[in-house]
Amino acid sequence: MKTKLLISILLITSTLSAQYRMDDKAKHNWAGTGISVSTALFVNHFLFKDKRPFTSSCIGFGMGVLAGALKETVWDKKMDRGVCSRQDFYDTVWGSLVGSLCVRVYFDCRKRKTSLNYDNQDRIYINSHIAFR
Questions:
Q1: Angstrom distances, CA of residue 14 to CA of 8, 30, 42
Q2: Sign of the dihedral defined by the CA atoms of residues 53, 59, 61, 63, in that order
Q3: Are the C-beta atoms of residues 40 and 56 closer than 8 Å to each other?
Q4: Structural domain that includes position 120
Q5: Given this model, what pLDDT does residue 126 score?
Q6: At 77, is the pLDDT very low, low, confident or very high (cuts 50, 70, 90)?
């Protein structure tokens, strides 16, 4: 399951620009998401052996932020291969935050083996704590 998820995330992030055109902000967002998710899954599985999911999510977020900062300062500013923009950096950070939060929810759901329960009034209970209509 982890391998399939990781492969599909990597395929999605690596082929996004080849499938259709998207603006630069969306590319930064998806790059941050892909980097943080793949790093968090890798670190959690191989380094921490599924024992420290919060730390893995934080490391994934940090790697996404680091990649965004390095891309903007080194690639765009120092090497003059693009336009250095704070908004691009913020979009990468936002994508990293969303990716690390999604991975954290994935870790929690997998740990608890969350199931959906229905009652007679068509309410959905998640772990019998929260009710949705």
A1: 10, 10, 17
A2: negative
A3: yes
A4: 2-132
A5: 55
A6: confident
Q: Which tokens hold the place of 81? A: 């291969």
Grouping H, G, I as helix, E, B as strand and the rest as coil, residue 84 is coil
Domain count, the chain: 1
- At 9 the three-state DSSP class reads helix
Higher pLDDT, 130 or 110: 110
Residue identified by tokens 């890798």 is 42
In this prediction the pTM is 0.69
Cα–Cα dist 65/71, whole Å: 10
Within 13 Å and on the Cβ side, how many CA atoms surround 54? 0
